[in-house]
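Worked problem 6 (solution included).
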Amino acid sequence: MLLAMPILVMFSGMVPSRPGCVIALIPPHCNLSLISMPLAELSAKELLSILTHVKQWVGNLRRAKQQRKQESKQALRAVISVVRETTVYLRSVKEGREKSIEKEERLSLSWTQLAFGLEDLGLNRLASRCSIKGRYWANPADYDHNFLERAGMRLADIERMAQASLKELGK
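Solution. The predicted structure is:
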């Protein structure tokens, strides 16, 4: 996706409502459509300074957007990793290995930390499910397994949400 750079156009009496104004057009994704300032109040040095700052601001905005996208991808991939780690643990218990309080503690902390990170990124639905998983692994006896399945808390449901979000970020 190309990001349009701001355009600075100087009018001298060509805009009837704003004679002698500088008009800076900002790309639509910035939620600003028009900024105008009286030209007579700005020196060439001030105009150059404004242009420089706008250019830096747009560059920073682009980098921040890309960084947030990367952070979201990392968090979603971490969800998938913890789903797989949890699946392996459950399989091992199902196949006869003893339950491990230490492993359940690590799972509880992993799910909880994922929830915090996802919440910070605004991925609240997935964060909520990870938070519940964290509380579940802290003390599984407190939770009804039927409730968890009805609430979309199965590991496959959580992984599907994470995969769908990753796919959406890739567009």
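Discussion: The longest helix spans residues 44-94.
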